[in-house]
Write a structure and sequence with these properties.
The protein is mostly helical and 203 residues long. The chain is 74% helix and 0% strand. Helix 5 packs parallel to helix 7.
Length: 203
Amino acid sequence: TILVFGQFVAMGIVEEKQNRVVEVVLAKVRTTSLLIGKVLGIGALGLVQIVAIGAAVVIGIVVAPIDDLGIPDLASIGVTAVVWLGIWFVLGYLVYSFLYATFGATISRQEDMQSVAFIPALSIMPAYFLIVITASSGGELTPLVRIASFVPLWSPIVMPYRINTGNAEPWEVALSIAIIVATIALLVVVGARVYRGAALRTG
């Protein structure tokens, strides 16, 4: 979901460059404000969609339970797990959206999207495979998993797993959040600079 809505951000930026709307907008709005507004707007839409899908799943399971499974104990998931998942979704979305925005600003046509869209997608895959392997091998916390939970591109996937399995100390969670917030701030600055330099150039 993070990758899908990140690509929407990049597509929006490319579309603005293609139809030259960005030239008019940038005459009135700061590049940083435009970039942040685009990321937050699409992000809010993504969050609402996830909540709607989640609610539909919960209602569907309760109303029409699967015979083999019965009605699952939704309370056993815990509010804390859901809250942490939401927090890390937002942080992960911001990191990848500003990354997509930066890459999107470097191209001029929608046809070229695939040439840059695979880069963020490749960067998130190691974290996904790391968690799958860790969970399937009994959940043992290896040094690689611990390190990955502090890497900004991987922590949105790895740290929620560590938190919800009880393998994360409070200081580790705080440090990981501080690192990813600092990374987001850096990506805003870099993304705005690339956007400003490339937005008015096509071809």
